[in-house]
Design goal:
By secondary structure, this protein is an all-alpha fold. It has helices at about 5-25, 40-55, 55-75, 80-105, 110-135, 145-165; strands at about 30, 40. A hairpin with a 7-residue loop joins strand 1 and strand 2 (about 40). The two termini are about 15 Å apart.
Length: about 180
């Protein structure tokens, strides 16, 4: 197997594991409400994977790491919606960040394009989970109670991702 392929598989596995740990192992806060989700810091690692490694890694790490956490924590009905929502979330964040990082020799992961991608992907997450919950509970009103918790998770994910990414500036994984 080529060294480059081994590196790619290793990076993907590490990021899946980081998302899984940050989502499913590090203590989370249960959300009261219709379907009882939980607030976690896993989104921050999806942003880190997407911004540092690109949209493909962000999509794979976000989708698989988060869905596995749902399965392990007992949120089995959420695993498929999470796989879809978090994969697209990682893809969106990575598409924005990857373009700006490819254009520059001096990498700065925390920039306007990366933050724009994070914000758009966070909005997607809130909308995606709202409609997933609409489907699960069968109405459009009850899932509105989950939105403030999604916003809190989104804000925390941004803050943690920025804290992690700032000291990693100018470190570019050789993929």
């Amino acid at each position: 197997m080529k060294t480059k392929n081994i590196k790619k598989i290793t990076y993907a596995g590490l990021m899946i594991a980081l998302v899984f740990i940050a989502t499913g192992i590090i203590p989370s806060i249960p959300v009261p409400g219709t379907t009882g989700g939980y607030i976690h810091i896993g989104d921050s690692m999806i942003y880190v994977a997407s911004i540092m490694l690109g949209w493909k890694y962000g999509a794979v790490a976000g989708g698989l790491g988060s869905a596995l956490a749902d399965l392990v924590k007992g949120y089995v009905p959420w695993a498929l919606p999470t796989l879809i929502i978090k994969s697209l979330m990682g893809m969106i964040a990575g598409l924005f960040a990857n373009k700006s990082n490819k254009e520059s020799q001096n990498i700065n992961y925390v920039n306007a394009r990366s933050l724009t991608g994070i914000i758009i992907s966070g909005i997607w997450m809130i909308i995606g989970y709202y409609f997933a919950e609409v489907i699960m509970v069968g109405n459009f009103i009850a899932p509105l109670s989950s939105i403030p918790y999604s916003l809190l998770q989104f804000a925390g994910g941004i803050i943690i991702a920025v804290i992690v990414l700032i000291p990693l500036k100018n470190i570019k994984p050789n993929l």
